[in-house]
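Lay summary. Proteins are chains of building blocks that fold into shapes, and those shapes determine what they do. In this project we predict the shape from the chain. Here is one chain we studied, written as its sequence of building blocks.
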Amino acid sequence: MEKVYNLKNDIIFKAFFSRKGNEEYLKDFLGALLGIEIETIKIKEEVSLEQLSTVEKGGRLDLQATLNERQIVNIELQSKNNGNFRVRTVFYASKMISREVVRGTDYNDVERTILINILGYEMFPQYDDYINKTAIVLRDHRECEVLDDVEWWFIELPKFRKAHPDMNLKINQWLAFIDDEDKELIEMAEKKNKILKEARNEVNYLTGNEAIRRMAELREKWDLEYEMSMEYAKKQGQEDGRKIGLEEGKEQGIKEGKEQGIKEGKEQGIKEGKEQGIKEGAKKEKIEIAKRMKEQNMDIEDIIKITGLTKNEIESIE
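And here is the predicted shape, written in a compact code that computers can read:
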């Protein structure tokens, strides 16, 4: 059975929204999300097969457009969490702004930048909202937004599915269409929004286009290979870490054991030396006592009882 692709494949996503003649779809989606009326929209570049071929090298695809000749919008679809998305989206924002600033540009003329991230995973599990917009505020005065030239939108599709969304809202209609998971929500969305009925025909056309479909398959293949390589690298790293840990642990154990042995040996030597010294000192004292007793012609049996020396030890005293 042939696999069915949808807008959650970023090849299909960009081919759909950037295709010439499809501007109305993007206007309808962005107008619903941003809550603004979009009079004009200019897509930066229409998707091309040459551009799509970059997916074989793991390139990421994003969609850029200018709204009402002022606001710059960047849309990216990120199906899985690769761990570096937050840093990358900040980098994208900086790059987009820097492209607008040329020599002699007044900073007040720099266009407003909006980054929209559609995620196939939960980025903020601590919150229930499936659509979140950033605001840069003062630390102690959260009500005061100090920078509004850049804003990020995060749309978490898994949360959307679980939220029992109000399908009277146009943005929810579009999210149901993009997510393409819940048939009941999709039917409701296409029933309430006639633009989505037309959009469905366009998606069907794109997923049936042999060249674009091939690129979508390559994207999926690369993503799968990337995940497998990352998993292998992770396991290999863990295994290497265990080996290194065992080797280092062994060396450390020998070193610490040697140090401990030297320390304990030293302590034991001091203890035994001290005991031996006391013992020998006591014996010398007994011999001195026995010597004086012999000089006084005391009976040898009495000397033995008093000093604890043997008969031979006493007789050998000169």
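What the prediction tells us: The CA atoms of residues 100 and 110 lie 6 Å apart.
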